[in-house]
Amino acid sequence: MAEITVLGAGSWGTTFAKVMADSGREVTLWARRGSVSEAIERHRENAEYLPGVRLPDTLRSTSDPRVALDGAHTVVLAVPSQSLRHNLAAWSSLLPPDATLVSLAKGVELGTLKRMSEVVVDITGVDEDRVAVVSGPNLALEIAQEQPTASVIACRDHDRAVALQELCTNSYFRPYTITDVIGCEIGGACKNVIALSCGMATGLGFGANTLATLITRGLAETARLGAALGADPLTFSGLAGLGDLVATCSSPLSRNRTFGARLGKGETVAQAQAAAQGQVAEGVKSCSSIRELAQRHGVEMPITEVVHRVCHDGFDPREMAGELIGRKTKPER
Ligand SMILES: NC(=O)c1ccc[n+]([C@@H]2O[C@H](COP(=O)([O-])OP(=O)(O)OC[C@H]3O[C@@H](n4cnc5c(N)ncnc54)[C@H](O)[C@@H]3O)[C@@H](O)[C@H]2O)c1
Ligand SMILES: O=P(O)(O)OC[C@H](O)CO
C-alpha cells in the first residue's frame, strides 16, 4: 500500500508517521482500533493522542495489518515496549522480505531483560543489521506541532541508517546517524526511570539543584550500565543520552515525569496509572528490568533502585532524598 508503514497510532507513532509524510514519503499508519484509523482518514486528526494537529493528506491509515504492510520497504514499530513481542509475533509473517525494521520504543523487556532491537531479532529472525532504532529528545506533541527537533537513528549498518535518515529529514526534524544501537537503546530506556525520579522530586517541591543532581547522577548510572553492555560512552553525551534525559526530566509533557510528580504529591501508583488514561509511562515497568539487568552485570544504579522501590515495593517518595543523599560518600567518578 505504501513505502513506509508505521505500526501503532499512539502519540509517537502518529507523530513519526507525520514526520515521514512531511518528508515527502507515502506512509500508512496502522491503528489497533478501527475508530482511530477511520477518524484519521475522515478528519485528518488523531484526536485522542494529538488533538488539534492536522495530519498530512499523504498519510493513510488502516486497522488491517495486512493492508498496512503490503509492499513496505520500511516498517516502523511504535507500540509500547512490553507489548512489542506479542504484537510482532502476530505481524511477523506479514513483514516484507528485506524491509528495514525500525524500533521507536524506549524500554527493556521484563523477564528476558532484552532491548527492543533484540526482541525484534528474536521474533523475526532477521539479521541485526536490518534493525534500526530512533531515539532522542523527542516529545511527540512538540514535533507534531513542527517545533525544530533533532534525533538519532542508530543502526549497525551505517548505509541503512543513512537511507532512513533521508526518509525522515524535513524542515523541522533533523536526525543524525550512529552505529551504537546498544547505547541509543539504553539511553532511551533509562531516561524514563530518571524522569520518574525527577517528577517525584518536583512533586515533593524540590527545585533546580535537586533536578540537576538527579539528571547528572542519572546520566552517570545510565552510562555505567551502557559501558557494561558494550555501548560507546560518547553516545550518552549525545542526543540519545543527555539530550533525551534533559528533555524528559524537564518537560511537563513527559508521561514519565508527570507520573513521578503524581507519586511525589502523594498519589498511589494505581491513581497515577489511572490518570495516565492508557498512555504508557515506560519507566514504571522498565525500572524493574533495568534494575535486574544492572544487578546481573554488577552495576550500581541507586536512582533506578529507589524508583523501583517506590513503584513496586510501596516505598514512600518522601524517603527518597534521605535514601540517596545518605549513601556512603565517594569520588564523583
Ligand atoms: N510519546 C512520545 O513523546 C514518545 C517519544 C519518543 C518515544 N516514545 C516511545 O514510543 C513508544 C510508543 O509510545 P507512544 O507515545 O506512541 O505510546 P502511546 O501510549 O501514546 O500509544 C501506544 C500505541 O500502542 C497501542 N497499544 C497500547 N498497548 C498496546 C498493546 N498491548 N498492543 C498493541 N497496541 C498497543 C495504543 O493503542 C497506541 O496506539 C514507547 O516506547 C515510548 O516510550 C514516545
Ligand atoms: O512522555 P515520555 O516520558 O514517554 O517521554 C517521551 C519521549 O521519550 C521524550 O523523548
From TrEMBL:
Question: From which domain of life does this come?
Answer: Bacteria
Q: Which GO terms describe its cellular component?
A: cytosol
Q: Name one Pfam family in it.
A: NAD_Gly3P_dh_N
Instruction: Tell me the keywords, alphabetical order.
Output: Cytoplasm, Lipid biosynthesis, Lipid metabolism, NAD, NADP, Nucleotide-binding, Oxidoreductase, Phospholipid biosynthesis, Phospholipid metabolism
Do you know which HAMAP family this protein is assigned to?
NAD_Glyc3P_dehydrog
Q: Which family does it belong to?
A: Belongs to the NAD-dependent glycerol-3-phosphate dehydrogenase family.
Which protein, by its recorded name, is this? Answer: Glycerol-3-phosphate dehydrogenase [NAD(P)+]
Annotated coiled-coil segments of the chain: none
Residues annotated as binding sn-glycerol 3-phosphate: K106, G136, K191, D244, S254, R255, N256
Per UniProt, substrate binds at K106, R255, N256
Q: What GO biological process terms does the UniProt entry carry, in alphabetical order?
A: carbohydrate metabolic process; glycerol-3-phosphate biosynthetic process; glycerol-3-phosphate catabolic process; glycerophospholipid metabolic process; phospholipid biosynthetic process
Provenance organism: Actinokineospora alba
Gene Ontology MF terms: glycerol-3-phosphate dehydrogenase (NAD+) activity; glycerol-3-phosphate dehydrogenase (NADP+) activity; NAD binding
Give the active-site positions: K191 (proton acceptor)
Does the UniProt entry include the keyword Metal-binding?
no
The record's section on PROSITE patterns has: NAD_G3PDH
Could you say which residues bind NAD(+) here? Answer: G8, A9, G10, S11, W12, G13, A140, R255
What EC number(s) does this enzyme carry? 1.1.1.94
Q: Domain Glycerol-3-phosphate dehydrogenase NAD-dependent N-terminal, which positions?
A: 3-159
